[in-house]
Amino acid sequence: DELSGTTADFFDNLHHDDQDRVARFVEDYLNAGGGDPYGLEFRMLTRTGQPVWILAQGKVVEWDADDNPSRMVGTHMNITTRKLRELEVTQLTQRFSKAFDENPTPMLITDIENGTIIDVNKGFLKAGDFRQEDVIGKSTIEIGMYTPEIRQEIMSEIQLHGSLQHYPLTVHRADGTYLEGEVYGEVITLEDRPRLLSVFVDQTEQRIIERQLAQRDQMLQAVADSAEMFLRSSDIENGLKVMLKRITQATGICRAFVIMNKKEDDLSVSQFRIFSEYSDSNQCQLLEDDVQA
Questions:
Q1: Which value, to the nearest 10 degrees, does the dihedral of the CA atoms of residues 22, 24, 26, 32 take?
Q2: Residue 10's closest CA among 25, 28, 22, 27?
Q3: pLDDT single digits (tens) 23-65
Q4: What is the pairing mode between strands 285-289 and 255-259?
Q5: Cα–Cα distance between 64 and 104 in angstroms, integer?
Q6: What is the pLDDT of residues 156-207, one digit of tens each?
Q7: Is the pTM of this model over 0.70?
Q8: What is the mean pLDDT of residues 95-121?
Q9: Facing residues of 183 across strands?
């Protein structure tokens, strides 16, 4: 009720950012003869100066003798609430897009039904050494990230729990190497379709260090288990053989130290021969450590 119905007042109350656009639309519509119904969204100002969004719909109902439009009828509907919601969604989408694309953590959006990749961020491309044109539109299986069996396990987890949390996963990069870590996944709606938003936390270096520490612990335990036997053995050469064999069996790698005791040359030669023997047969790494008596 705050808006006047006259043509002059209509243009006077148009939002200044929409005036040229609406004027061009009206001119083009009338010049075309006005044969079809029209629809146009624009902003108008109320008497208090507040902008409101209007959906105008109508059509030409009368023409003059020269077939020029002479009378139009239509309606104006206040759609401010809808437009504000659309604006909010647009802003949220823009913020999400920026956060998604600029995040250094590998992220991707896939079709939940077939695994087709909808979008990836820069972190994903860098971590996997992929090019965007080589992954968009292809499935995670097609680009070799993991096997169909792994994907089936992932989908079963989502169906069971509704999301992925701390899910351990090994993924392959473009060059065939792999990354180890955890994946987090949430089902989102994008373009009215269910999509899977996945975030991969790379823990490759951490896992390597953990294995190295576990291997070291195994070696130390093997040494501790055989130390007493070695110290009590009257046969030094056989004691060294047993000790080295246990280390090798426990770790798959043996690092041997050759003690060059200049006061007992025979013992040092004997030790060197023992370690050399196991180094060749078990592919152990031979390290020499000169220890002065």
A1: -150
A2: 22
A3: 999 999 999 988 899 999 999 998 888 999 999 999 999 999 8
A4: parallel
A5: 66
A6: 999 999 999 999 999 999 999 999 999 999 999 888 899 999 999 999 999 8
A7: no
A8: 92
A9: 167, 200
Report the DSSP beta bridge partners of residue 119: 109
List the structure tokens of 26: 């009206």
Which phi and psi (to 5°) does residue 80 adopt? -60, -45
pLDDT class for 284, splitting at 50, 70, 90?
very low
Collect all residues with Cβ–Cβ distance below 8 Å to 63 and sequence separation of at least 6.
33, 34, 69, 70
Gap between the Cα atoms of 208 and 152, Å rounded: 27
For residue 58, what are the β-bridge partners?
A: 38, 74
CA 36 to chain centre: 48
- Distance from the Cα of residue 178 to its chain's centroid: 15
Give the mean model confidence (pLDDT) for residues 269-277: 44
Q: What is the 3-state secondary structure (H, E, C) of the chain?
A: CCCCCCHHHHHHCECCCCHHHHHHHHHHHHHCCCCCCEEEEEEEECCCCCEEEEEEEEEEEEECCCCCEEEEEEEEEECHHHHHHHHHHHHHHHHHHHHHHHCCCCEEEEECCCCEEEEECHHHHHHHCCCHHHHCCCECCCCCCCCHHHHHHHHHHHHHHCEEEEEEEEEECCCCCEEEEEEEEEEEEECCEEEEEEEEEECHHHHHHHHHHHHHHHHHHHHHHHHHHHHHCCCHHHHHHHHHHHHHHHHCCCEEEEECCCCCHHHHHHHHHHHHHHHHHCCCEEEEECCCC
Task: Please report where in the chains the tokens 């993924």 appear, as a residue.
Answer: 171
